[in-house]
Amino acid sequence: MAFGRSSRTDTRRTSSSYCSTTTLVVLVALCLVGAWMMTSSAMAPAEVPSPATKSDMSDKVSRTSSNPYKDGSDDASEDSISDDNSSGENNMPNKSDSESDKTSEKLEEKTEVENPTKGSDDTNNDLDNSSNTQNDGDANGNKGGETIEEAGDAKEGNDTGDEAGGQEQKSKPEQDEKSDGDKTEDEKTEGVIEEKVDQSSDEDKDGNHSRDKGNNEVFPSGAQTELFNETSRQNGAWSTQAVESKNEKEVQASSSSKGQTIEYSWKLCNVKAGADYIPCLDNEAAIKKLRSTKHYEHRERHCPDNAPTCLVPLPDGFKRLIKWPKSREKIWYNNVPHTKLAAVKGHQNWVKVSGEYLTFPGGGTQFKHGALHYIDFIQESLPNIAWGKRSRVILDVGCGVASFGGYLFDRDVLAISFAPKDEHEAQVQFALERGIPAISAVMGTKRLPFPSKVFDVVHCARCRVPWHIEGGMLLLELNRLLRPGGYFVWSATPVYQDLPEDAEIWKAMSALTKSMCWEMVTRKNDTLNQVGLAVYRKPSDNKCYEKRAKDNPPLCQESDNPDAAWNVPLQACMHKLPVDPTSRGTVWPEQWPQRLEKTPYWLSGSQTGVYGKPAPEDFQADYEHWKQIVGKSYVNGMGINWSTVRNVMDMRSVYGGFAAALRDMKVWVMNIVSIDSPDTLPIIYERGLFGMYHDWCESFSTYPRTYDLLHADHLFSKLKKRCRLLPVIAEVDRVLRPEGKLIVRDDADVISEIENMAKSLHWEITLAYSKDNEGLLCVQKTMWRPQDTETGMSSLS
Question: Which residues fall in a compositionally biased region of kind Low complexity (predicted)?
Fold first, then answer.
């Protein structure tokens, strides 16, 4: 009985429990249906994050006429590009040791970031240059750590570029909204352009140590200032499996060496060129394979497949350089111990050996009595050339020891001179040792590394170039480089001698220049030097081209890009001149020095600049930025003795703002626009400055020990995507003079890597600072050279 009562009671409880469960299930189902309906109605197709990725900027250089400096994302609308976009370098996977602290959760974006604070001039402290010391630890303050050998490509980056589709997005929406809402436009701009350092302590919150501190140092506030946020397309909310796997491998690899110091083993180069080694010009293995040298192919660039990592030895008895302007007249013989040119050209006053010096009494075959007289003779022959006003940037072909360009500084003119590394031993090396701009190059089978329509004047004084042969191909290359309305100054024996060979050349040149629509504006003789010159003017429009009876030389195809100049073969054709009044080349630049600060007329507000602003604003913001940096930090705050600085190179120039900010210094700046960067080199020339294209994965076309200061702004972090940094630093060591300076602004992990390499080279670390993943490094090269030499003669030379 008792069992029976208990059974009925359990049955009732079971039935009641079943009803309650059924009710609960129904309620849950109704809630789920309601939530789904609300979610469906709230979503719209436009709100779904796009998985599209942007193409890798390093794959090509954009040189379109509508936007000559825009990156490869041509289809990105201006409205979709914010001033606060993450830069290309910030989107790429980080390859440093600091990655070991990251998790593998790639789908969750970190949006809560610390809003960078704006610095104040009144709160910064003066730099104490006397307290600069070299820290034994790395940039993160690590003192100890196991030492490992540097091996191959493991720590130096990849030989090929990363696919942009695998870039990791690091946007900061909450920070952007806050900063935009709390500041006026002027305040935002000021906060972006003016970089400050908070130096209340020698060690910041991240444990990074500053080797130097003070109120003169200008430094980015926050992970990356707006100015450095180069325009890029976002990747959407999701990463890809390829990138996640690749990043994890890199994190694991970096974790294995966390806290360790990489030891670099340096050796001297074992090459025939010895102390004058230029890897891309002394590659004998490649030169021996050439089928012909008829067009000076053996003087062109032939870079080794693997860039060298050895160090170039110093000449015996190398001495500290003579300062400018005395260096224009004499240099130390031991620094450039070559006498062949003095023996061959001494009677023409090129160069002479005088005790422990090499002296330059005249400077050239055409101006035995001094370059200044010759320069003034040109001005008297053609007053419209207006040195230092209308004519500011010129190209000197076959420059010899570059005395012409050296004395043009007295007329406020910049001349970039070039000559081949040939039997005229070390002529370009003499020029650079004297403090005169020059590169090793030849007019052979390829275009020179300059954009079109940029030189105000092209000059040739006995430059030994056969302009009239093969359809005038070489003269047509000068036509590409010369501004519409610019002048070609030709001083050679055919102009003023009547020998049969000279007369024949003059006749051929006269026919060629006429067919090119060049007008000969003057032809005069200099009685003092007993030489003569002819000056031709390039047309400013296409009227003459259209009236020619014969299409010879022919006009280039419309598809031919005259600005494409990196390893592009020469063509015997002429490019049509621009006709749109808003196009570059239709209007002569402002007179110097107004053109330095003037925004080029062909930069339109509808174009997006490198940093994401409308192009004219971008240009001005860049200039103000570098005036702040140079004035407050580089000139007054880093302990650099600028009286010892003459030859300067900006290894990654954008608008030439760094060079423009140094205008009042007694220096000249070679502006390098990397071949994988936006093509802004025409803008630099429009300002009355000069530069050239280059790929820093290869050696530069200059002699060793030719620059006093190298400046690299966010260069090395970009290079790591394409090539190893070790050969690049070896190239920096080759180009930089003993006691020369290297200034690097880059990501903190890259700064740490460069600092370690500099220490291994026995360079002095004069300043190293990092904050918010941004770093600043200033190092000075020493006289140190390794004792060991590479085993076996290198096949490169």
Answer: 126-136
